[in-house]
Amino acid sequence: MSAAVAASALLWFSVHAHGGDGADLRDAWGSYQTVYISADGRVMDFREGGITTSEGQAYAMVRALWMGDRATFDRVHRWTIDNLQGGDGGRLAAWRWGHRDDGTYGVLDGQPASDADQFMIWALFGASTRWKTPRYGSVAHALLDRLWEAEVTEVAGKLVLLPGPWARGGVPVRLNPSYFLPFAWREFARRDPTRPWIRLLDDGYELLAACRSPGGLHFDWCSLDPVTGAVLPSTDAKDSVFGFEAFRVAWTLAAEVKWHRERRARRLLAPYDALLARPDAPVKIPGIIHPDGLAAVDWEYPGMWGALLPGWSLRHPALVRRIWAEKFEPLRASHGWGDPDDYYGQNWIWFGLALWQSKERPV
């Protein structure tokens, strides 16, 4: 990455590091590109055998935009169009691509995933403003039309974001709370005033309040009665844990507080403080937590820690600085942090650091 790219202004944010100048963000973005993004723009998940997901492509587009790196943004976007969108930038991306049984490479699952779709649209709208390029906005509008048609539905009078088109008409209605991105819906409402995005946002906050354990941690997955809209008890214990999906909700809520001063998000974040235990004691959080608050595993997951940092920093800034020094600085390596095969964790540590260290700046 060139010095000019590294020093360029961010789209929505200007980095204000706690005791630094954002060098960790810039360095980690440079190493991430070297390790995880191919020369032609494909993000590789080595833990899953080198597959590529629409989520990974969308994350890379957001990070490239955040760092003002247009060359990488375009490279990743071009690969996504050619390989996940069938050459049509306005088509929702297939979520999984990789090595097929017949030895060829291509789409393994053509279903879209709404978390990736939203991040990609959000990034494209930002790019249209940041780089004064209307074609990004045109593509984003086309995707937004398809997202609304395929991935938003109404359940018992409430608008609901589905995890993908596959969930439409399901009984019960399957939801993933970590796919709810109110900060993106606010931008979509500004760009597309013809649709009720703010109604989706308000209804989404009601669901975020309902899809939680008694202790207030969000579930990885949630099910609704299609007639009443009530949250149903899970028939699969794996759905109701706080784990690899749900930890992203904490990051989203922190973004809503930091960027939009959203009181509902602040209330929903409050139970996450309980994970810190005593501020003078070593903090250990299991990588998966049962609804009763007990550990489901005996190991920790750095990606979860990364996503939790920005929310904690709103009320415990000194403790978060200590956690960063104790938990993350020892993990720092040439590829990022910790496990070099864990592209997902690398992203959420980076996003956590970026949100913690950054402040919104309008274009």
Rg result: 19 Å
Q: What's the arrangement of strands in the largest beta sheet?
A: 2-3-4
* Uncertain stretches of 5 or more adjacent residues: 1-21
Assembly form of the protein? single chain
Shape: globular
Q: Could you explain how this protein is built, in words?
A:
The protein has a domain of 145 residues: Glycosyltransferase (Alpha/alpha barrel). The N terminus is likely disordered. It has 363 residues and is mostly helical. The protein starts with a helix and ends with a strand. The strands form five sheets. A three-stranded antiparallel β-sheet has the order 2-3-4. A two-stranded antiparallel sheet has the order 1-11. Strands 5-6 form a two-stranded antiparallel sheet. α3 runs antiparallel to α4 and α9 runs parallel beside α11. The chain contains 13 helices and eleven strands. 46% of the residues lie in helices and 10% in strands. The protein is globular and about 50 Å long.
Properties at a glance:
46% helix; 363 residues; 11 strands; two-stranded antiparallel ribbon; 3-stranded antiparallel β-sheet; 10% strand; single chain; mainly alpha; disordered N terminus; Glycosyltransferase
